[in-house]
Design goal:
alpha+beta, 20% strand, eight-stranded antiparallel beta sheet, binds magnesium ion, 40% helix, 15 strands, binds adenosine-5'-diphosphate, disordered N terminus
Length: 361
């Protein structure tokens, strides 16, 4: 007799209620095993921090995500709530367009009076003026009148006439800003600040500092592709940061990074409009008043996100020669540039580090 035949016979001997009870018992045991497994997984995750907790929130006009290792779930959730709340507070302080923000108040008081600001706004202002100076004005936090003219502030895009550009450009000059003693003053009524090229980086750094104060040593904050890192992953391996290709859905390159630091990208594809087949994007050359055109994407790797953010915008305007020369002078700073011909240019320290598709890496 075949084994099958034997089983059929055996089963046929049992009564229907008996079979039902056995099935129920089996199901109960199975459910208990699944539950136990899940509990063990959670405990293990909290203790050893093998896989990170992931949280995402909409902030700074983009999707901001946090990956955090090595905490129990309840703790991780509390840390994430404090983090996003702090980031939201800073965004509100530094926003160009929120009538409640300090930057808005500085702009409203332009040509009239200095404005007392919080230590955070004062600090970003100092950083912005520093990067304006070392980039010889390629990065300029007083770029707002030009952004306004192109419609990049309200979204009412248009191509301005040359005389309009000249007039608005006349109000753009970081050297005229008076900042110090907890106050900021724009001496001309036509002047205005826009910290869009640096605020996100500053806020990421503040977020990382908050995580460090909470005892976290393995975390990553990703604000729409601008990434800040606190230590390696829990197992000591580096995070792998994928860079978006500026003209396709492909990954352009991968940068492994395991220490505290940042990888920030400025691209002409992030905010732009097209008119008569021409692309006009949001990073303006203060000297011409027009979108900078010698690069299409700039990624900067630096010890802090504020540095990486300001420099990615600065290099975008400076172009490949001046941009790479500046990077070679700055310790711990590296850059990856993409030209309009989609040629990749790397600073010296990045050549051995970056993984390109087809590298096998
Ligand atoms: P994103 O904010 O898209 O990540 P960036 O960091 O490059 O990209 O910042 C671009 C923003 O910087 C613009 O939206 C504008 O607010 C501001 N900006 C544009 N041109 C300049 C410039 N030459 N100097 C300083 N800030 C600029
Ligand atoms: Mg920037």
């Amino acid at each position: 007799m075949s084994r099958d035949g034997y089983r059929k016979e055996d089963r046929a001997k049992r009564s229907a209620p008996q079979q039902g009870r056995r099935r129920l018992l089996f199901l109960l045991l199975f459910a208990a095993a699944v539950l136990l497994g899940a509990v063990l997984l959670l405990i293990n995750r909290g203790a050893a921090g093998e896989s990170p907790f992931n949280y995402t929130e909409l902030l700074m006009d983009t999707e901001v995500s946090l990956q955090l290792f090595g905490r129990k779930e309840g703790e991780a959730r509390r840390i994430k709530e404090t983090l996003f709340e702090e980031m939201r507070r800073l965004e509100q302080l530094l926003s160009c367009c929120d009538p409640q923000s300090e930057v808005f108040e500085i702009n409203r008081a332009a040509g009239k009076r200095p404005v007392a600001v919080s230590p955070e706004t004062a600090e970003v202002m100092q950083e912005a003026l520093h990067y304006a100076a070392i980039s010889e004005g390629a990065f300029d936090p007083t770029i707002a009148p030009l952004l306004e003219l192109w419609g990049f502030r309200e979204g009412d895009y248009r191509v301005p006439a040359p005389d309009e550009l000249a007039q608005a450009g006349g109000a753009v000059d970081y050297r005229a800003v008076e900042a110090g003693g907890g106050e900021v003053y724009l001496p001309q009524r036509s002047m205005a600040l826009d910290l869009g090229g640096i605020a996100k980086g500053y806020i990421i750094d503040c977020g990382l500092a908050l995580l460090a104060r909470s005892g976290v040593s393995h975390a990553l904050i990703n604000a729409g592709g601008d990434v800040g890192i606190l230590g390696p992953k829990a197992d000591g391996s580096p995070w792998k940061i994928g860079l978006k290709h500026p003209r396709s859905e492909k990954i352009l390159a991968v940068i492994p990074r395991g220490e505290r630091g940042a990888v920030v990208t400025s691209g002409d594809y992030e905010r732009f409009f097209e008119k008569d087949g021409v692309r006009y994007h949001h990073i303006l050359d203060p000297r011409t008043g027009r979108p900078a055109s010698s690069l299409i994407s700039v990624t900067v790797v630096a010890p802090t996100a504020v540095q990486a953010d300001a420099l990615s915008t600065a290099l975008f305007v400076m172009g490949p020669e001046r941009g790479l020369a500046l990077v070679e002078d700055l310790p711990g700073v590296e850059a990856l540039l993409v030209t309009p011909q989609q040629e990749l240019l790397l600073s010296s320290g990045l050549r051995d580090l970056v993984e390109l598709p087809g590298d096998g890496g």
